[in-house]
Amino acid sequence: MRKYIIGAVFGALLMLSTTAFANKPLMEIKAWLWPTPIQINVNGLLTTSNPDEVQVLNYNDQAYVPLRYVAEKLGATVNFKPEGTDWVHLNGNRITIDSADNQGLTVKDQDGIISLGNFQFIPKHGGTMLTFQMKQNKELPAEKPFLNLSFFDRQHKLIYSQAVTLSFYAHGKGGVQTLFVQLDALVPTLDASQITASLSHDAVIGELPGRLIPLTESTYILQIVMTDAQYGWAKGDGTVLRTTDGGKTWLIATPQGLQLYGAGSSIANHDSAFVGNHAWVAKPPISYYEESEVTVWHTDNGGQTWKRATLPITENWEQSSSALMNFIDEKNGFVFLASRDGENRKYSIYSTSDGGNQWTRVAEVTGLVFFTQRGISFLDSHNGWIATGNRLMHTTDGGKNWTAMSITLPSAYNQYRCYLDIAPQFFGTDPQVGFLQVPISSSQGSLVLLYVTRDGGKTWNPSGENVVSDSEEMKIIDDHTVYMLSRKKAKNNFKYQLYLTENAGQTWTLKSEFDIPSLQNLYTWQFLNLSDGWISDAYPGKVFGTHDGGLTWTQLRSPK
What is the β-pairing status of strands 158-165 and 146-152? Predict the structure, then answer.
């Protein structure tokens, strides 16, 4: 007897759980079960389905057969990704069907675990989109999570190498699938004889030249980090900037092929760090790109060349994360990946001890409220702090475990509440001495207290009763000298007051008071020593400098 069912035919055809479609409204239809066998002949191998086990539907006098059953009998691989499970399926469900014969999959790794082939190179997003098919011949070794691809020219000279985190692509032994990999270099079209593949514990290091293009137009300058009076770095609008003349002119130093969203984008998710002639850029995948890796780029020669490293991420949420970065010196640094889960935000921590070539997963941390790059600092490879809300978190084992430290306000400020967003800073000759900026507020207004530690951050105490209102981030010169900048609204602009302490905050002196008519809004500032300082307005990227401790300021950069 013919029977009918009510439901989602699409889910039944794929023989997948209809719960995967729960977030989308489905149209209810009527279809008939049609007990019809399916006969398939592949190269003389004939199979016929059992109608009681493999069901066919009749809808509007058209037959609908189970896609997975038919495709797999034909030697193809079928996969389904529900919306939101990874970077490429954020905007909808997707079904993939892959079929390939072994003749087209000619590139194998050293142990024959995978076979690759049918390569296509498509210029896209300033780099090259590589698509290819992969067949998994054996179980993937857990100790070798990376697929390393290397590209050669016809003279067998290496053009470029890039790692792929295979666990985010592989679907099981015996299946064929298509991979989409956004290469960070303009790789020309090559045939299979010019491509090699290997599986390894560590990701291969790719290398690209920097651009070093003069910057003349308006842009964002979000942070200035000068290493001496002439050389320095800045965060730009989706770029890394470099100056060699004290901030008068700037070069775009971002590596060729690296795609970053600018400061005005709501999905800007990268971060950068600078130490001397070294710079790093950490970049999670961008959801509109076909990529799965979290990469860290490093230059040790002022941006002339860059090396591309890959973090050994393990969780799907890390593929749509934001990056925060902190480097202690030229060798030791940390990357924090932050999920986009709001109140349930997760953080994973990675560390390096070789300047960013190889990275180790340290831990996954939960229970922290949102914090920014300036909310992270490390004194050494073991001791670090996170300024997060009204708590100061401290680790003594390189980020594996964190404990909360209490900040006690002086009795005169019991009615105030503190909100920490700047981590402790350690400078100078004594590593035991550090400073913590503690903003406090109440109905009476906002103030900033300076706390000091003399035991390497184990305890923190107010350094004095003097406070500065409406203060910017403090700038530490050494273990007893600190600048602090305050702003007050004037008629058509701001008036700035520069305070100085030379006794670790016991007393403060008004060093200078100034206003700059062409400076609409001070966004970032730095003092390298008691004399040399810089300020910028974020946009359009004006830069001003002083060589007399803030008494006078000169405009260094005037964007077009």
Answer: antiparallel
Question: What is the 3 state secondary structure string of 173-192?
Answer: CCCEEEEEEEECCCCCCCCH
Give the whole-angstrom CA distance, residue 125 versus residue 105: 27
Domain boundary among 33, 59, 74: 74
Instruction: Give how many domains the chain has, as a whole number.
Output: 2
- Terminal-residue alpha carbon distance, the chain: 80
Pairing mode, if any, of strands 445-453 and 434-442? antiparallel
- CB-CB contact of 116 with 133 (8 Å): yes
CB atoms within 10 A of CB 85: 15
- Chain centre to alpha carbon of residue 322: 4
Q: Are residues 56 and 110 in the same domain?
A: no
pLDDT tens digits for 90-145?
Answer: 445 677 778 887 788 999 999 999 999 999 998 876 678 888 999 989 988 989 99
Give the amino acid at 31. Answer: A
Cα separation, 195 vs 183, in Å, equals 14
> How many helices and strands, by DSSP H and E, does the chain display?
2, 45
Structure tokens at 484: 């602090």
How far apart are the C-alpha atoms of 332 and 46, rounded to whole Å? 62
- Strands 346-352, 195-200: parallel, antiparallel or unpaired by DSSP? unpaired
Residues 384 and 394: beta-carbon distance below 8 Å: yes
Q: Which of 494, 430, 508, 404 lies closest to 464, judged by CA?
A: 508
Closest CA to 261 of 243, 283, 242: 283
Domain that holds residue 126: 102-204
Most confident of 29-33, 43-47, 81-85: 29-33
Give the separation between CA 231 and CA 90, rounded to whole angstroms: 42
| Local structure of residue 52 (DSSP, 8 states) | T
Closest alpha carbon to 202 in 141, 143, 283: 143
Residues 115 and 200 in one domain: yes
